[in-house]
Amino acid sequence: MAFDTLLVANRGEIAARVIRSAQSLGLRAVAVYTTADAKAPHVTLADEAVWIGEGPVGDSYLVGDKILQAAQQTGAGAIHPGYGFLSENSDFAQAVEGAGLTFVGPEPKAILSMGNKAEAKRLMIAAGVPCVPGYEGEDQSDAVLIEAAGKIGFPIMVKAAAGGGGRGMRLVHDSADLAEAITLARSEAENAFGSGELILEKAILEPRHVEIQVFADTHGNVIHLGERDCSVQRRHQKVVEEAPCPVMTPDLRARMGAAAVDAARAVDYRGAGTVEFLLDSSGAFYFLEMNTRLQVEHPVTELVTGLDLVAMQIAVAQGETLSLTQEDVTLTGHAIEVRLYAEDPANDYLPATGPIDLWQPATGPGVRVDAGVVTGQEVSPFYDPMLAKLIAYGPSREAARARLIKTVKESVLLGTVTNSAFLVDVLGQEAFARGEATTAFLDQAYPDGFPLTQASPANVALALALLLDADQKRTKQAAGYVSDDQMGWSSAALLPLHVPLMFGEEELTPRALAKPDGWTVWVGEAQFDVSFSGRANGHTRARINTQTVDVVSHVTRDTVQIAVGAERLSFRRLRPGAHDDAAAAGGRVTAPMPGLVVEVTAEAGQTVSKGDRLAVLEAMKMQHQITAAVDGTVIAVHVKAGQQLTAGDVMIEIEETE
């Protein structure tokens, strides 16, 4: 079991995080990467890196043979799968063991048992672990599922038996919607996990999602490391995680911990695992699933326990006994984590791609940033949109929350769209601050979705002043020596300069006039005097009238991106004679993001109504329904299933009904 070289079969922040722990233990770390990930930090951090493909996961990170070849090529004695990709693939774990290598994770048999929700639930019922009433039978016909749902009662959850992360999952409130939900869940499950098997569960509305971190060695020792509350979710994808749970009591922790340990023992577990429960308002809890791997949110457990879970995984994989007992586990302080995503919350949280022009993570006491990106990298459509995990620790929950808000504001990523403003807003919600968030929290807090970001007149003035200031510096360099006191000077009165800017789809028409110490900018009827000082590494201290603000910016010849507080704003200058083509409205259906066409239901000649499903596009591991924006007749279908699209590609054309 002993090994001195560890290959990390993953990418992004988790690959970097595992590599750091492995190297701290004196191990040699090997990374695998694709052409799309060539500039990723895990490649630079590793002692050696092996190329495994161009980009798509189906040709790279999901190909077990390529991972094994890389391990053999580099002399790796063990493989750490991280999370996602092959981490819960029992066939891969078996292949690793069969190749004489160590799999840093549970036995293949345990992965297989817990990887299928139906089998896992049957095992948990036999082990006496509380479970949600439902159907987990082998007969998968629609008729049997519909009949079982009627017996269970609505609302009901339709879930993929394999996999997780919210894919292949639908909440159904009414029997009339069940057949379509089964079809969609099965399709999504087949595409995501290669299995269309489904289970049904009685929907427990507005519970907390509480999970227990378990650890087991190969000598019969199993312990738990307390809980994490992961109730703040969107489409069953976790957004905020914290430890400990705000409503946890010592008695409830002991009972949930014991149930989690029983679950691990039921499958002869080895290594790190997480047993997830739904906790209702009465204190009753129900088994949800077991993740047979390290979780994305493991840092909050590390911060409150003082343990390195990756180091513990490696120790167990090398045959060592757990270094602590249940009585040794203590939870101190509070930790909260949020996930920084490349997504647009104001546009139904659609994943985003594009360049990372600037990435500057926050630093300071109690701050931890696990990032998988660097400045100059490109966010591709091939992978999960998570860019970094921002974590804060404090002596109390409120201290951790306040520190995390500051951390999100000070962690600046410019280039692609991110959810930073959304995260700060979530953390600032009163219900969250009071520790009252359930799985219904986001729907309740944002019933109409997250609002579109508006650019305040002051921020428009700031952005324009930064853009013109950069112009002025380029002109000064090209002109030779011009003293600073001559800048903006003229013997005749200058007229304000009109500089049209695009902010999203909105055209702005601010005016500006140079002064020796800065700029006067008019946005509508509002006037702003803007000056700058203290510039370094993209950071600028700006004075806007009587207010002083700190701004981080990235300026090119015609674009300016600014970060002020939690806001990330991007403006583009419109040159004379240039114009923007407005997005084709109504009848021209385009791909909202790069992705793979999974299904096309629209046909030429078909009559459709606004809201009808036309196609399904898969991007960044999620499926998105493409719907009609107008009533009309389909006159052309330009795509087919299996086709890879880029953002803006025309998919379908509809002749709108007059």
Automatic annotation (TrEMBL):
- Domain ATP-grasp positions: 121-318
What PANTHER family does UniProt report for this protein, alphabetically? Answer: CARBOXYLASE:PYRUVATE/ACETYL-COA/PROPIONYL-COA CARBOXYLASE, METHYLCROTONOYL-COA CARBOXYLASE SUBUNIT ALPHA, MITOCHONDRIAL-RELATED
| Molecular functions (GO terms) | ATP binding; ligase activity; metal ion binding
Query: What cofactor(s) does the depicted protein rely on?
Result: biotin
Q: Which residues form the Lipoyl-binding domain?
A: 582-655
GN (gene name): accA1_3
Q: Tell me which UniProt keywords the record has, alphabetically.
A: ATP-binding, Biotin, Ligase, Nucleotide-binding, Transit peptide
**Ranges of residues in domain Biotin carboxylation:** 2-447
A Pfam family hit? Biotin_lipoyl
Q: Which domain of life is it from?
A: Bacteria
* Keyword Hydrolase in annotation: no
Checking NCBIfam families in the record gives: PRK08591.1 (NF006367)
Indicate whether GTP-binding appears among the record's keywords: no
Q: What is this protein called?
A: Acetyl-/propionyl-coenzyme A carboxylase alpha chain
Q: What is the lineage of its organism?
A: Bacteria, Pseudomonadati, Pseudomonadota, Alphaproteobacteria, Rhodobacterales
